[in-house]
Amino acid sequence: MSETELDDVETLADLADLAREAAEDEETVLVFIEQEDAWFAVVRVDGEEDPRIFVSDAAAASRSAYGEIVLTDELLGRDSDADLDALVVDLDEEASAAEDEDEDDDEDAAVDPDGVPTGPLGDAGLLIEFGVGAKELMDMSVEGSVPGDALTEIADALGVGDVLEAVR
User: Fold this and answer.
1) Do residues 123 and 133 touch, judged by C-beta distance below 8 A?
2) Per-residue pLDDT tens over the stretch 52-81
3) C-alpha separations of 57 from 17, 69, 94, 136, 144 in Å
4) Is pLDDT at 96 greater than 60 in this prediction?
5) In contact, 42 and 123? CB cutoff 8 Å
6) Is the pTM of this model over 0.90?
7) Contact, 23 vs 51, CB < 8 A?
8) Do 60 and 54 touch, CB atoms closer than 8 A?
9) What is the layout of strands, in order, in the sheet containing 121-122?
10) Which string of b and e fits 25-64 if b means at least 16 CB within 10 Å?
């Protein structure tokens, strides 16, 4: 584990490439990202496979430059190749949606204005083989949890707590 400067990282692909460069013999690399005790992310890179991502609070991450790196269209369930015609909302559908808005207030509370879900998002099982289960990771992400404490707990479970503290 080491601290890596993320200034030149603009996309998840850049982050994955940086992680692969740090790996020896295509070993698994875990990247911890923490943003001012607002949210945390764990990115797992296994060789040339696509990175696996867990974000503790997607809505909070969406308001951060680092969050934009990990909140990919795929993770958010967006089709980045969507046909522009599909993005045009029919006026009748818009009117119907406005009528249903009052009924769906509880559902809307789980999504921020940009359509990013609040709360945890991603692969909660990405650390199972390291001794941190999906339920544990989700519990570390509940409202009121401190992201820095969660990453410390994860690092301690991985046996690298001292290293994490050294790079903070």
Assistant:
1) no
2) 999 999 999 999 988 999 999 899 988 655
3) 24, 14, 29, 15, 11
4) no
5) no
6) no
7) no
8) no
9) 28-35, 39-46, 52-55, 121-122
10) eeeebbbbbbbeebbbbbbbbbeeeebbbbbbbbbbbbeb
